[in-house]
Amino acid sequence: MSELLKQYQSLTPTIDGCSKVDLTKLAKKQADEIIENGSSEIAFAALTKIEYLVKTTKENIKQDALLEVEKGNDYAFGVKLSTMGVTSYDYSKCGDKELEELEAKAKEYSEKITERKSFLKGLKSSITILNEETGETIKVFPPLKKVVDSINSKF
């Protein structure tokens, strides 16, 4: 067995037999301990790199894992593995004019929506607009601004 697989196996006592609920509890316990020790930013940075490592490794072994699961090697660490086909459709070669027209309109409307949102973001206070078709006046307000803190990770 490779040294890398031995490292993964060293995690087995921590995760073996854990359900999703158990892992959620374990994650909460770890988060509480990290916060209590005042090292959230360090743990966040490390976990970001680990998350990238795991995601990229899974992408690189996916084809081989699919073959193994199809052979019947479909259970490990309390996780049942199965394969399934995901269907998607590429309409670009259909030559359907109606679909092309609808997609062009959607793009046009999407651009108009983006322009309108930019206009509304630029408002400092409410304004009254005249609807030229109906003669009705409409009071328009700037959008509510909501700021959510997040952490951007890059390595």
Description of the molecule:
The protein has 155 residues and is mainly alpha-helical. It folds into 2 domains: 3-80, no CATH class; 97-140, no CATH class. The chain contains 5 helices and 4 strands, in the order ααααββαββ. The protein has helices at 3-10, 12-15, 20-36, 40-70, 97-121; strands at residues 75-76, 79-80, 127-130, 137-140. The strands form 2 sheets. The chain has a two-stranded antiparallel sheet with strand order 1-2. A two-stranded antiparallel sheet has the order 3-4. Strand 1 (75-76) and strand 2 (79-80) form a beta hairpin.
Q: Provide the number of structural domains.
A: 2
**What class, by secondary structure content?**
mainly alpha
Would you report the number of β strands? 4
Most strands sheet: 2 strands, antiparallel
**Helical residue percent band:** 40-55%
Low-confidence stretches: none
The 3D shape can be described as flat
Gyration radius over CA: 26 Å
Strand content: 5-15%
- Round the mean pLDDT to the nearest integer and report it: 88
Distance between the termini: 30 Å
User: What pattern of helices and strands is seen along the backbone?
Assistant: HHHHEEHEE
Query: Count of helical segments?
Result: 5
Strand order of the largest sheet: 1-2
Compact overview of the structure:
This protein has 155 residues and is mainly alpha-helical. It has 5 helices and 4 strands, in the order H-H-H-H-E-E-H-E-E. The protein folds into 2 domains: 3-80, no CATH class; 97-140, no CATH class.
